[in-house]
Design brief:
Layout (H helix, E strand, L loop, with lengths): L1 E12 L5 E10 L2 E2 L2 H6 L2 E3 L18 E11 L2 E12 L2 E10 L5 E8 L4 E3 L2 E14 L5 E16 L2 E13 L10 H6 L1
Parallel strand pairs: 1-12
Antiparallel strand pairs: 1-2, 2-3, 2-4, 5-6, 6-7, 7-8, 8-10, 9-10, 10-11, 11-12
């Protein structure tokens, strides 16, 4: 069975440092997913569920960077392209990052796994591509604002094999103050 789905969601950091994923738009095989089903797709993620930052002190030494010649303007900021190779979750990945000229902070990072297919949790991944967009705050902090993921995969549910493409677009929100609400009412806000 072939399956194509698109999911757009917002990620909120909770008071206990978990991440709440709240879908707001979704399509499965071209059909819009009803809002009540989207609410049921809300989930709590841990920091380890997200791919590690290439710029954190813990992973920086594992990334092989190569400065390229291309310069491009993102927003109103001049950026230079850097290519990189690294290992993410045990798999080799490569990509490019657009870093601000002068301070090296990222505004855009794109990468993909290069040794495919591979198996992860009973799912065979044929393609995994991710694009992260960042914003620099007034106090100079670099914050991720959105992630786009495209995957081609194959998995089995109740002995029925599925294969298809999954696209996920996630926006990262500021800390959510109303942590006492259940998932369904958070999705309504």
């Amino acid at each position: 069975v072939e399956h194509n789905s698109t999911l757009e969601a917002t990620l909120f950091r909770t008071a206990d440092n978990k991440i709440l994923l709240v879908p707001h738009t979704g399509y499965a095989n071209g059909e819009e997913i009803p809002k009540n089903e989207l609410r049921q797709m809300s989930e709590i993620l841990l920091e380890k569920d997200l791919h590690p930052s290439l710029f954190s002190s813990a992973t920086r030494s594992q990334v092989e960077w190569r400065q390229e010649r291309e310069i491009r303007t993102l927003g109103d900021v001049s950026c230079q392209r850097f290519s990189f190779t690294t290992e993410i979750n045990g798999h080799r990945a490569n990509g490019s990052a657009w870093l601000i000229v002068g301070n090296g902070l990222p505004l855009e990072v794109e990468w993909q796994f290069v040794e495919v297919p591979f198996k992860q949790d009973e799912t065979t991944i044929y393609l995994y591509r991710q694009k992260d967009s960042y914003r620099i705050s007034a106090d100079g902090q670099c914050n991720i604002v959105s992630t786009e993921i495209t995957m081609s995969l194959q998995y089995t549910v109740f002995f029925v094999p599925y294969e298809g493409q999954l696209q996920r677009r996630m926006a990262f929100a500021n800390h959510r103050k109303r942590q006492d609400l259940p998932l369904n009412s958070v999705a309504d806000n």
